[in-house]
Amino acid sequence: MSDNLKPKNEFPDQQGGNKQKKSRLTLAKQKKPKPPKKKWLTNEGKWGLFMISPYLIQFIVFIAFTLIASLYFSFSRYDMLNAPQWIGLDNYDKLINDPVFWKSLWNTIYFTVLFVPTQTILALILATALNQSLKGLKLYRMAHFIPVISSWTVVLYVADAIFNPRFGLANDLLLKLGMEPQQWLNDENLVIPVLVAVAVWKGIGYMMIIFLAGLQNVPEDLYEAADIEGAGVLQKFRHVTVPLISGTTFLVLVLSTITTFQAFEQIYVMTGNSGDITAAGGPNNASMVLMLYLFQQGFAFLKMGYASAIAWVLFLILFAITLVQVKLQNKWVHYEK
Amino acid sequence: MAGKWLKISVLIMAFAFILTGCSDESGGEAGTNSDQTEITLGFYSSGSADEKMNELIQKFEEEHPDIKVKTQNAPYQQFFQKLDTQIAGGTAPDVWLSDGVFVQKYAERGAAKDLTEWINEDLEKDEYYGLDFNKDSDGKYWGVPQGIQIGALFYNKDMFDQAGVEYPDESWTWEDLKEAGAKLTIDTDGMKADDASFKPDSVKQYGLTFFNITEGWMPVMKSYGGGVLGEDLRNSIIDSEENKEAINYIVDGMERGIFTDPSDLQAFQSPMSPFPSETAAMRIGIYARTLAANETGVNYDVTVLPKGPDGERFSPTIANSWVISESASDEKAKAAWEWVKYWVQEDEVQKEWAALGEAVPVKKSVANSELFLESGDKPANKQAFLDSFEHAGTLDVNAVWSEWVKKFGDNINRAFLNETSVEEALENADEEVQKVLDEFYENQ
Predict the structure, then answer these.
(1) Do B160 and B166 meet the contact criterion of CB atoms below 8 Å apart?
(2) What Å distances lie between residue B194 and A117, B172, B372, CA to CA?
(3) CB-based contact, B263 to chain A, within 8 Å
(4) ipTM, interface predicted TM-score of the complex
């Protein structure tokens, strides 16, 4: 039967009025045995799913499930050892009235505001400088990349050699210049700037590499054209380089904003005495950032519900900031068509 | 065709996933005889202690052929982080070694088994040190000590000799300590704390190094008659005259450069290092601190901690303990109890563990034997640790210990650094600590 109908389907336009009606009916009937299009997954789709299944399973188990669980926990009292108890908005209510939460939010923002522009600008300058054809260039690039691959514990030792209030180089230098020695990480006002300085040193190599990749995509002929127009080095940088790597710059900005909001390890290692989570974030909570506060509340004090609430607030803030960045990019980011 | 393959591969994957994810449970059972009880034993570990622990476990298995012990261990921080997650996931070890300050955290949240009955039945309480430190205010026991840490005064004999100061003894008060400390404190120009031109900001050698709770403010406050929590451990008694006096004593010592303040300590790679590195002449130290001191070869000895103004003495004590999981089956809990008994009752075990030198033995007969008192070279006066038991007390440990310690520490450190007055710091600490306590106990 289906064989008979087939030609009619193929040329529905040639049918008369009556027959057309009929063929529509049969067409509807016929869709069932005609599998490929209606099936929710094609064979290729299945294979595709299969190929990504390790990641998919990982995503469902370790990300999607935990996300939902943490949202649920954020509305409950949960000490990990006992079943969570639903308490509605209490955690969020407490959050709003918690001075340490506000302080850590402020510290996080302060950290980001200092860190992101500093790192971005310095990385760009560094990348431009290293985007030349010089001898031993690879060596310079590598030198800047070494802190990136070092662990925070190693960086801590280097930083300590500099900023140790008793034995550090920084205070030696200040003394030689006739200035007062500083307490650095023990000083409420200095702790974040010092942390930022170290973080920039550690992270700059990575951003520099991203910038380098961007710089190498700028077509040479544009510079040649600019040369012909008589543009100086700075003008070329301002009018050719900057607009053409704006896409890269955008990426760097988003990436570094996200990493600073997630800053944890560095502050944990550098301010916590011998890995003591309850000691980290000092002095007087001056370097307490959201991630650290979250971890402390959750894992040291067993307030998983409260920690989850902090996590969701952190997520919302990050989401909002990234959204703003994406919206703003239309204004200044230039993509080559 | 592809559909079939997909199903098969998904099955394989799921199986592999279960295998890798749950190997902890499924792996062990296979090798166990049906008449054997398998228990999981968790402990935090460090180098040499690890080896000894495994040796003792092996001996235990030989003596108890019906029990098989599987171990889980990790360095201190990771161990406790993992433990909390394991308890949450219902996969906690059947018996684990808990830092003494965390026993109540598990007990009051229902993760630890009440051991009162078993202890009453099987243990002669007078034979052991520290059993009572795991007792809650209702008189229930939640753990059995594995090793005891108790505070004493460590002093560097060479530095005392050099300064011509007499060694400390039982007669010392905290004021005596400060007086002697002043003579032992030297700045970078070689001036002593009592000299007019002494610079407290550039101290080269401190009289006393002072480190947060156990080896810092707690023994001073308690011997001054103060403390942090009342007897029920649910109320703050921070804002008291006695505490004010004690903290003033400490702040004065720090201001004069005789004691290390929190920011001085930050300058050392480890806050524990001033004594073994001979940057401080004295320290308040628990027994385990002898390890570092012996390692660096400092010429030191110990004595009991100084008395407060009214002659009261206080030795801070931590009883690191075996805790049995509330969720362990009866059979496993009983097997775990066998392990605990084996640990505290067997002289051999106690001796072997004591030989490591990281804790005072739990069993009094072993602690009072030559084996402990004469072991190793230093300190000569190990008896001081045992004498300290007469004045032993806990660190006001309860379920929210870490949290209130953090609140208290944050406030008191500001007073230590002269950022606020002692009165204000105590008032704030009192308020914040009470809030932590209320929040937890209101919901219990």
Answers:
(1) yes
(2) 50, 20, 40
(3) yes
(4) 0.81
